[in-house]
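anyone seen this seq b4? input:
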Amino acid sequence: MSHTSPITLLLVDDSRVARLSLLRQLKSFPLEFTILEAASADEAQALMVDKQADAALIDFNMPGRDGIELAHAFRQSHPKMKMALVTANIQEALMKRAHELGMAFLGKPANTAELARFLGVTL
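predicted toks r here
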């Protein structure tokens, strides 16, 4: 990701509080962001029909399709988008599924240093 221009970042989480928490952390980074938000996999996919994001932070447990299912769909439609699964559901099998899709895995609540590393930000 080039950091000379704003990064477009997609936040997908059914919890508004979780999205606000991520936004608070992101605002502390020395980067410009354009933030796209979605509360479900379906909403995220609809939003991305005519948009591009450099990276996505995707919750696992959401109503309807989960974050892994969404990531699989994004691998087809947006193959260059960098993705991280951000979840409190920290299980080895889930980590493995995320890594198989080329996703980073971040525990919830997200650790600021890990979030920065995922985005390539030096704090």
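The mean pLDDT is 90. The two ends are 16 Å apart (CA to CA). kinda curious what u guys think
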